[in-house]
């Protein structure tokens, strides 16, 4: 049963999201859409149309009802932040020593260099007929488990003219090495079959053996840790993304159970009401994509989990355990070193339990019911789940997001600068390729300012604009000074750069031309329920009148806002009123969409280009601290900023202007235009990107300090032979210690990914 907590006056004032009626649930979708300008309302000296605003001018959009309102979910924010930090860094959360932080310990990203090769999405998973999923023509060989990456491995696709150019020549579009589907990503678990959580809280898994032994992740029959199919982005500033993961599958709405928000048909939590009655209800917290994202690794057998482990199993393992009981915590940890949290006498972990931390942070109605048969029970125990175990996904997601909301790197040289652009854009105009910049504060040097001009001249700002230099950032942008909220359109209809056809697409998701389109659909793929991930697919199918096309509340999309309105391409007789209306339209005369039959016919015609959408699209990566977060792209195929820039300078590795586009699979386009900048231009651009590094991140100062962590950096031996194995037959881990650091940070700075790579 659902508790209807949507105030009637809120429904009256708030327009419906396109295609759905108002959803009755514990919390309603916010109506804070006070303007329709793209990232409007910010008040920083760098508030220049077409350029990212300073993060100092942006407030974190907390989920409505979590911290505010008459009956918030969280009753103590700081204790919830502490809970989130402990859960994020705790190696006990994973089945075999893997924490969330295992893939996010180096400037919020992964700093490891061994056993990081993955077959990528193109060849996953392995099949009985092809048990080794690695790309067979990769020049490094067909078996890449436990491979040690070197400087010579990057970029994965190396270009040059053997007759005249050195390997990796930035101007050439001739591919020197075989094109590989393999990706550089992050090692996770060994996997195995989950058995039970023992009464003492220990987790039991059975290692894969015999025919179950994964032939991709093993060396000579010794099972190695598995590796995710895509490169790991940084967690820092990730709370400002509207959707998370490269393919955007972590929903803007948090359901407390899974990454899929309103798409998950059976997601619910348990609540005790004021009359002490227990209710089963849906949860829909907006601005909560990072909470959605945090739940996915908990049960993923490539990342943190043995096969078939549930979130409730994780809860049973953790709730009565001491947080971080295997790890040291700095006495001056900015969150866990305060007087509110006693450190254990052993010097490891906290003197409390996870259940006590939850009870201190969250309202009793979510955990006070205790153990009840209605919550179900695991197959390995006669003891039913408690309400705290049943709701653990909600506690975990909200706490991790609240912790991540503190990880905002808003003190970079760019944020400190006072930028002035010349000429000043007029009303409705934006910066141009000929714009020049000065910094009246003197913080940015001449080379960095010249690099900013290259950034604009090269059209980098077309995708890397908005907060954190990504057009995929939150749909609701909050001004830190005025608290005014501005709405960002999530769909666009226009001609893209070089295209001769019209493209309707999710804003902030593009083909970066780093790999051929056939390797990974990205946003063009489907969710776990067979529905398209892309908003635009749902939107267009909804226009066509396809039943069930809209499977989640779409962001309000006005046809009149499109750069190319439908009135440009369709006659008046082919159009109907836009069901989203025309409130906020600069030109209400464009508030029309094609009739459903027109759209349905077009979708059946392969030669009709009016509704091209979907396919091989990935979230535009943020650029903050990018100096420290290599390797780059969703396939991790580039180790340096120079290599990433060169990809764009030549029009992409497999872009429309690159002859390699047809090498193994037909390439139908990319979102990259070749711009042949000089070596000086490129060097200046790199220096500007380095101006986006926050020194607190570089030195791990608060709030970027953390507990001790041990991460598996491959196994003894190499990809041909593993010299040691553990008692259960799995490869022995080569552990890398990440020491605990307190609020004052480290004396030594974090290094770049390339500088950590050994020479061949």
Beta fraction of the residues?
A: 5-15%
Largest sheet: spatial strand order? 1-12-13
Strand segment tally:
21
Biggest beta sheet summary: 3 strands, antiparallel
What distance separates the N and C termini? 62 Å
Number of helices: 15
Class derived from helix and strand content: alpha+beta
Give the proportion of residues in helices. 10-25%
Poorly predicted residue ranges: 1-46, 660-670
Rough outline? globular
**Mean pLDDT across residues:** 87
Q: Mind telling me the C-alpha Rg?
A: 26 Å
Explained architecture:
This protein is α+β, with helices and mostly antiparallel strands and 760 residues long. It has a domain at 489-603. It is 16% helix and 9% strand. The chain contains 15 helices and 21 strands. It has helices at 8-13, 77-89, 289-295, 311-318, 354-361, 387-390, 392-404, 413-416, 446-457, 535-543, 596-603, 641-649, 679-690, 695-698, 753-756, and strands at 58-59, 117-118, 183-184, 193-197, 203-206, 218-219, 222-223, 269-272, 278-281, 419-422, 436-439, 476-479, 485-487, 491-494, 503-506, 509-510, 575-577, 592-594, 618-619, 709-712, 735-738. The strands form ten sheets. It has a three-stranded antiparallel sheet with strand order 1-12-13, with no helix packed on it. The longest helix is centred in the N-terminal third of the chain and has 13 residues, at 77-89. The radius of gyration is 26 Å and the shape is globular.
């Amino acid at each position: 049963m659902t508790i209807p907590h949507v105030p009637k006056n809120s429904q009256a004032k708030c327009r419906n999201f396109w295609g759905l009626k108002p959803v009755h649930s514990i919390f309603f979708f916010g109506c804070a859409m006070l303007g329709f300008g793209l990232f409007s309302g910010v008040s920083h000296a760098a508030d220049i149309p077409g350029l990212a605003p300073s993060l100092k001018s942006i407030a974190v959009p907390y989920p409505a009802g979590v911290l505010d309102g008459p009956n918030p979910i969280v009753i103590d924010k700081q204790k919830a932040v502490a809970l989130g930090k402990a859960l994020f860094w705790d190696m006990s959360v994973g089945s075999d020593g893997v924490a969330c932080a295992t893939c996010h310990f180096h400037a919020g990203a992964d700093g490891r260099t061994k056993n990081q090769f993955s077959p990528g999405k193109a060849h996953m998973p392995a099949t009985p007929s092809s048990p080794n999923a690695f790309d067979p023509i990769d020049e490094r060989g067909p078996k890449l488990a436990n491979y040690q990456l070197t400087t010579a491995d990057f970029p994965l696709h190396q270009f040059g003219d053997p007759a005249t150019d050195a390997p990796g020549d930035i101007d050439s579009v001739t591919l020197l090495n075989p094109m590989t589907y393999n990706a550089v990503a992050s090692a996770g678990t060994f996997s195995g079959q989950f058995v039970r959580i023992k009464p003492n809280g220990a987790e039991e898994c059975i290692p894969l053996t015999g025919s179950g032994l994964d032939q991709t992740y093993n060396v000579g029959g010794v099972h190695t840790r598995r590796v995710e199919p895509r490169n790991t982005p940084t967690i820092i500033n990730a709370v400002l993304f509207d959707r998370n993961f490269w393919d955007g599958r972590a929903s803007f709405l948090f359901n407390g159970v899974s990454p899929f928000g309103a798409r998950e048909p059976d997601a619910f939590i348990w609540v005790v009401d004021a009359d002490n009655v227990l209710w089963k209800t849906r949860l829909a917290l907006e601005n909560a994509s990072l909470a959605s994202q945090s739940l996915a690794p908990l049960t993923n057998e490539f990342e943190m989990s043995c096969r078939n482990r549930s979130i409730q199993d994780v809860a049973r393992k953790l709730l009565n355990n001491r947080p971080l009981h295997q790890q040291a915590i700095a006495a001056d940890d900015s969150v866990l070193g305060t007087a509110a949290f006693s450190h254990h006498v052993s010097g490891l972990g906290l003197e409390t339990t996870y259940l006590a931390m939850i009870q201190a942070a969250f309202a009793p109605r979510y955990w006070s019911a205790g153990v009840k048969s209605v919550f179900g029970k695991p197959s390995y125990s006669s003891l039913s789940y408690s309400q705290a175990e049943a709701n653990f996904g909600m506690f975990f997601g909200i706490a991790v997001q609240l912790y991540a909301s503190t990880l905002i790197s808003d003190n970079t040289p760019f944020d400190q600068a006072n930028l002035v652009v010349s000429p000043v854009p007029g009303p409705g105009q934006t910066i141009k390729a000929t714009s020049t910049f000065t910094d009246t504060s003197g913080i940015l040097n001449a080379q960095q300012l010249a690099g900013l001009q290259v950034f604009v001249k090269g059209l980098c700002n077309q995708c890397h604009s908005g907060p954190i230099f990504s057009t995929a950032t939150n749909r609701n942008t909050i001004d830190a000074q005025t608290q005014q909220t501005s709405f960002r359109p999530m769909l666009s209809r226009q001609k893209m750069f070089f295209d001769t056809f019209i493209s309707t697409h999710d804003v902030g998701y593009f083909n970066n031309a780093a790999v051929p389109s056939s390797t990974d659909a990205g946003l063009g793929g489907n969710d776990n329920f067979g529905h398209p991930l892309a908003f635009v697919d749902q939107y267009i199918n909804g226009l066509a009148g396809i039943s069930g096309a809209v499977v989640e509340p779409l962001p309000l999309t006005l046809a009149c806002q499109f750069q190319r309105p439908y009135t440009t391409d369709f006659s008046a007789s082919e159009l109907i009123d836009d069901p989203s209306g025309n409130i906020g339209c600069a030109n209400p005369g464009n508030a029309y969409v094609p009739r459903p039959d027109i759209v349905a016919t077009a979708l059946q015609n392969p030669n009709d280009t009016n509704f091209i959408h979907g396919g091989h699209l990935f979230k535009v990566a943020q650029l903050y601290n990018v100096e420290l977060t290599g390797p780059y792209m969703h396939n991790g195929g580039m180790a340096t900023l120079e290599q990433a820039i060169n990809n764009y300078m030549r029009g992409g590795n497999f872009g429309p202007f690159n002859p390699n586009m047809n090498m193994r699979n037909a390439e139908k386009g990319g979102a990259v235009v070749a711009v042949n900048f000089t070596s000086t231009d490129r060097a200046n651009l790199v220096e500007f990107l380095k101006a986006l590094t926050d020194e607190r991140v570089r030195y791990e100062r608060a709030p970027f300090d953390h507990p001790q962590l041990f991460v598996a950096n491959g196994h003894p031996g190499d990809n041909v032979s593993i010299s040691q194995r553990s008692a259960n037959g799995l490869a022995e881990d080569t552990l890398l210690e990440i020491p605990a650091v307190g609020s004052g940070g480290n004396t030594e700075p974090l290094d770049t990914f390339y500088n950590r790579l050994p020479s061949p």
